Amino acid sequence: VVKMLSWAIALGSGTSGGVLAPLLIIGGALGALEAHWLPVGDVSLWVMLSMGAMMGGTMRSPFTALVFVLELTHDLNVLPGLLIACVAADAVTILLMRRSILTEKVALHGYHLTREYGVDPLELIRVGEVMDEHPELVPGTLSLDTFADQFLFGLKVPRHQAFLVVDEQTRLQGILTRNDVVRRMKKGRNMRIPVEKACTRDLAVTYPDELLARAAIKMLERRVGRLPVVSREDPSRVVGYLGRSAVIEARLRQLNEESIRERGWTVQAVDDR
Known about the structure:
This protein has 273 residues and is mostly helical. It has 13 helices and 5 strands. The strands form 2 sheets. Strands 1-2-3 form a 3-stranded mixed beta sheet. Helix 8 links the parallel strand 1 and strand 2. Helix 2 crosses helix 3 and helix 3 runs parallel beside helix 5.
């Protein structure tokens, strides 16, 4: 009891110190107390199970606790029960605690911590799953003023802020954004030149089989908001268009799939009643 109170006071005050020995002592003491009301097994069995459960759950390391206790006892007969105790304790602490006791002090110092293990949703999606497969292609020979009349000031509302410029064989030449045209008009520069001479030719491209996370990194490195999607076999052949909105929507889709509870057959059965 004294050990448990002193440890709780020390840990709550922010004092640095080890947690392994106190956890084992507290877990073992609780197991010894519970053994008097449990009809199965002797006191030492429940002491061991409680030590492993306390360590595995509080430190979010059930398998480490399992191996640790087995090394102390060398009794493989208790492995099934010890495994159940450690995993159950870990599940309870995941539901009740925002983080493990090992990272609690770091969070108290103002650092933002998420779950220790997580997968970036963008690492699970490929560019081909979210890209626009029918991007708006602009002939490179089209004059810039005609392009502005058709795509910027015409009745047709473009889907994207940028347009892919292609030659007569629909091979990629560059990319032209609406801001590029507007800046050129404000500066009073020649608007009768072909689009191919006003577009950006130094392009960063992506591929349909590339992970969306890698494509997002390319956007950040080049400080652009869109990427032409081209074929790996023929980098001049356009197969799609990837904008920053598609990356955000892919992220949102993954979050919705994790947070929205699907209606199962049990819910449907209740509704039918």
